[in-house]
Amino acid sequence: MVIIGGGFVGVEYAHFFSAVGTKVTLIIRDKVLLPFEEPEISELLKNEMGKRMTLLFGSDAVELRRSGKGYAVLVENRGSGEIQQLQTDTVMVSAGRTSNADLLKVENAGVETNERNYIKVDDYLRTNRKHIWALGDAIGRAMFTHAGDHEAELAWHNAGSRRKLPMDFQNVPHAVYTSPQIASIGLTEKKARENYEVLVGKAAYSDTVMVRRCLSTAGLQKRSSRRAAAGSSGFILSALTQLS
Ligand SMILES: Cc1cc2nc3c(=O)[nH]c(=O)nc-3n(C[C@H](O)[C@H](O)[C@H](O)COP(=O)(O)OP(=O)(O)OC[C@H]3O[C@@H](n4cnc5c(N)ncnc54)[C@H](O)[C@@H]3O)c2cc1C
Q1: Superfamily name and number for 2-93
Q2: Domain 174-243 has CATH 3.40.50.880
Q3: In what order do the strands lie in the sheet with 54-56?
Q4: Mind listing the pLDDT tens digit for each residue in 51-67?
Q5: Separation between Cα atoms, residue 5 and residue 56, nearest integer Å
Q6: In ligand 1, which atom is closest to the CA atom of 13?
Q7: Would you say residue 227 has pLDDT above 70?
Q8: Ligand 1 pocket, residue 137 CB under 6 Å
Q9: Which among 14, 32, 109, 216 would be 20 to 30 A from 3, CA to CA?
Q10: Average pLDDT, integer, range 43-55
């Protein structure tokens, strides 16, 4: 099986199919897996997933055609321009999600969309039309089920209340169902350092009871906190865990 795209969806399915015995090749445009995660996470995931499947980094799928009983996928190396042909039974395309606001034609209701064609909302999830609220994937922000659920509660509250509550997009937790498993919330260390003086703590995940119970060894926990200035307290900017 060839999977095109090394984002959250591509790596989760690559993990799942390789775990049930499928021979998987994952085509990844970037030089790392999950570039939005901490670099340690991308590296660890690359090493662990690389043991179970073929990872083609810095590569673009440029052509797909029927070939025998399956498909031929032409893959171009973005650095050298070299093309290789992969023969496969099945192809999965997970090269990103796009808005379908063009099908819904929200502009007919006077609702504005942004440059990526997602519905524009303010901090309270209200569109430019006073009585129209939008949430979930349609606004193209934190595209996760639990974020959509929370936004639904907020939009419902804000539509009927004078005391409106903003959506906090910085603190949306997310998980990636691979092996190692990944979970994180908040800023990456690099992002945190752009605006704050930070303290970074790291611990071996194997020191936790859960990991010992699972007989695992690889993994880490990392937490970035704002450094406490004299007379004030610091606060946690991010946290992530990865375990296998
Ligand atoms: C392969 C994949 C894996 C994912 N894995 C995870 C995960 O592990 N964890 C996680 O948190 N999130 C995951 N997500 C993201 C998650 O599925 C979405 O963020 C979530 O479903 C968004 O909810 P929503 O209600 O905004 O949109 P949707 O769940 O897409 O619901 C929108 C609904 O509106 C309907 N609709 C569209 N247009 C119209 C119309 N004109 N009229 C009437 N109905 C319409 C659609 O048919 C659909 O039923 C994944 C997404 C994908 C694609």
Answers
A1: FAD/NAD(P)-binding domain (3.50.50.60)
A2: no
A3: 54-56, 25-27, 2-4, 91-93
A4: 999 999 999 999 999 99
A5: 10
A6: 1
A7: no
A8: yes
A9: 216
A10: 94
